[in-house]
Amino acid sequence: MNKTENQILVIFGASGDLTARKLVPALFNLYVAEQLPDNFVVLGASRSDMTDTQFRNRVVLESSYLKEKIKDKDESYIKDFANKFFYEDLGGSYDTDYSRLRTRVEDLKNKYNTSGNIIYYLSTPPTLYETIAQRLADAGMSTQNNGWKRLVVEKPFGYSLDTAIELNKGLQQFFKEHQIYRIDHYLGKETVQNLLVTRFANSIFEPLWNRNYIHHVEITNAEEVGVEKRGGYYDKSGALRDMFQNHLLQIVSLVVMEPPISDAPEDIRDEKVKALKSLRIMKDDQTLYDNTIRAQYTKSIIDGNEVKGYREEDGVDENSTTETYAAIKFFVDNWRWKDTPFYVRTAKRMPTKVTEVVIHFKTPHHQIFKDSGVHDKDNKLIIRIQPDEGILVKFGVKVPGQGFKVERANLDFYYSNLVETHVMDAYERLLLDAMQGDATLYSRADEVEAAWEFVDPILKYWEDGKDVRMYGYAAGVWGPENADELIEGIGEWRNPGPNLTDDPGFCVIC
Ligand SMILES: NC(=O)C1=CN([C@@H]2O[C@H](COP(=O)(O)OP(=O)(O)OC[C@H]3O[C@@H](n4cnc5c(N)ncnc54)[C@H](OP(=O)(O)O)[C@@H]3O)[C@@H](O)[C@H]2O)C=CC1
Ligand SMILES: O=C1O[C@H](COP(=O)(O)O)[C@@H](O)[C@H](O)[C@H]1O
Q1: 7-154 placed in CATH 3.40.50.2300
Q2: Which pTM value belongs to this model?
Q3: N-to-C CA span, the chain
Q4: Over the stretch 389-440, which tens digit does the pLDDT of each residue have?
Q5: CA neighbours within 13 Å on the CB side: how many for 490?
């Protein structure tokens, strides 16, 4: 394993939700696992007026997100962690001269012997990313002559293909591509990475991983929650931008890609880009009409409680046409996947929180057990990304007794069975990788652009009002019934239960 070098982590937007909710708890996990460098400090930077002590209280000592994690720990142990945190008020704007920030970084470096290695983590609204990169460069803080400098950029990366290209160009004026780490927290999830291992470390799956044996691929990302407190952001984004363009297409790229020549970051990223470039772009209105479905959740009663419809949520326009459900069917134009349909859907206010990839295998080409009662396409490989990370293979076995009655049996594996192994949280893993300079699980510029190229025509089609269909679905069901039309003739959506081995069909309000 790489040694994590001494360094400073500068977080822009440190007064915000992400810092307190995700970044600091991830750093705490690394601290407990003794993975932080010997000499390491965090400098929070924002416009809010705060002292070091107030910042430490906010994100560590009084943070509700750390409460559970620190409750059994010694006070001095927690204080030692909190004392790594410092705060610099940017004085009202991110678009300002950073010489004071630079002096503060220099002082911390000298006092705590952190060396000149610095990660700048951009956790502000995306409109500020380029400004911050420019101001850092203006202050001479991006140059690598006395230690490396890395820029971690949060999602969303662009709002469309054009804005993503613009942002890439903007950042690359001030930081070199190898210094830029575009985060996608789904890549930090253990089972997402395990897709690579399942495929390329086993000789039993890869030979079948193609159009000859796979009937179709289905990917579901369902959230039980609605838009929560992020209505203002979400209403300008929608399911396609918020989840599909980034997290789900990352998963798609790992399912579709060819074997990389090694596990080196650039080898893996090269293959992912090729995979994304092979997705067939939907060009004409009829194709877009036939292959895309969007919908919004409407109010309903779940467990006796009234749940708001999307248009009633805080921050959401009462006439909003933003989708909270998106289902897309598409093809991959390459040798391996020719004519194999992919069905990908993502939504909020579904019956349960679940993300899974289902590989539906073809029926054996000659059916011997015709009256077996087992239906076509019943062989499945299910890769469960969350909540109960694991893998399930569904296959036919003989029912004891006369004749050849076949039943489906399950072969399952759960990550939680690896009791000795601590499964890192996504942000924990990704932060550690950035600290160690491993960009494998970060998106490269061309990868982000290739994903946008696929998504852009769908967004334009929807947003230009060419498709007037905006279905409704009651909060707590598996989306609009019309989504069935998308998959009709091929199979049906697998509506999974909260547990990997649950039979499909789970619904909280039916
Ligand atoms: N929260 C989450 O779960 C996730 C967030 N992200 C992304 O991470 C980034 C940060 O998210 P989050 O922490 O939730 O965001 P916040 O809205 O909490 O903003 C972060 C900080 O940015 C500053 N800020 C907010 N609005 C403005 C503005 N209009 N002009 C200048 N500064 C502003 C504020 O600090 P101050 O006023 O003190 O300068 C604020 O504390 C965003 O890009 C978001 O899309 C990505 C995935 C999940
Ligand atoms: O990036 C985002 O992801 C979350 C879902 O993340 P998960 O790890 O809980 O699956 C989603 O709620 C949010 O809208 C989106 O911005």
Answers
A1: no
A2: 0.94
A3: 50
A4: 999 999 888 888 888 888 888 999 998 888 777 778 999 999 999 999 999 9
A5: 20
